[in-house]
Amino acid sequence: MQVLIIADDLTGALDSAVAFTGGGRRVVVARDVARIPEALERAPDVLSVNLACREGDADTARARMRACVDQLDLGAVPVVIKKVDSRLKGHVGVECAALADAMAPERIVALPAVPQMGRVQKDGAVTGDGIDAPIALSPLFDRPVTIPEATTDAQMDACVAAEGRVLWVGARGLCFALARRLFGPLDPVDWQLAHPLVFAVGSRDPITVEQVEALRGALPIAALPDGRAAGDVPASGTTVFQMTESGAGRTPEDAARDFADAVADHLRATRPDGLLATGGETAQAILDRLGIGVLDVRAELAPGLPVSEARVTWGTLQIATKSGGFGDPDLLRRIARGD
């Protein structure tokens, strides 16, 4: 294994791992800590592990990190990355402390900037698009940490030239910079998502809602108020399932459970070639229903939209994941057209 990535949610685990695809490398994501042995059986060049702890408490995050590193020989992996949200959501400090205790790096370098997304690092803080006020980095850590200036990809590349045993802390911008350092210029992998395709839109982010509206009239859209089907669902072909609100006051947990059940039942019944899920929790729940624990990451359809493959009862399913607040209004329509 050349690279180990430890993330706190599924979309992050995939979005960071995709940086290392190409060149014949096997890039594998373990959907949770319990799937690490299954992932290691595939002899990955790059392993990304999802701790699935962003929405939980700090004690859970710490325990899952320790359970993760106990299964891995950190000293044998040249590059170790703690993948964090570029807006520093979750339990960054707790997870980094537990990983640093196990790894004993010579130094920790924090680089959560993603210049491609307009999120940069200046004066010890992350700022830019989608960030209301600069987020200071040093208060998140319980030990010394290096926090470089990083406002461009060129600066990111200069930052990752450091030698020695480093614990890298960052987001997709850091992963792509490290991939360029390790493997040279990255050639995009040409990939189109297989059809028929099921869109599972669990995110209610306004950006995603606008993207679904752009599909209306071109594809059948099945609304699932609070996760429950409210009408007829097409028996085959490319279909959009959209979580909506019913006003009935159901808990988000109950709605998410029913939504995942409905989508998984449809997938098993219609046996499509592709799935696109918006929102990490949506993807986690559907993959859980399908019994998918390990994903082989193949390519990036668009920035922030990785596509993976997994074995299912009817063959191979291509799975694309997208965070809720990402992409231009026409993104889903282009994917539906195969552009």
UniProtKB/TrEMBL annotation:
Keyword Cytoplasm tagged: no
Alphabetized SUPFAM superfamilies for the sequence: YgbK-like
Superkingdom field: Bacteria
Stretches that traverse the bilayer: none
Keywords: ATP-binding, Carbohydrate metabolism, Kinase, Nucleotide-binding, Transferase
InterPro entries on file: 4-carb_acid_sugar_kinase_N (IPR010737), 4-carb_acid_sugar_kinase_N_sf (IPR037051), NBD_C (IPR031475), NBD_C_sf (IPR042213)
Domain Four-carbon acid sugar kinase N-terminal: 4-129
Keyword Nucleotide-binding assigned: yes
Molecular-function GO terms, alphabetical: ATP binding; kinase activity
Ranges for domain Four-carbon acid sugar kinase nucleotide binding: 238-332
Family listed: Belongs to the four-carbon acid sugar kinase family.
Name of the protein this chain belongs to: Uncharacterized conserved protein YgbK, DUF1537 family
Species name: Palleronia salina
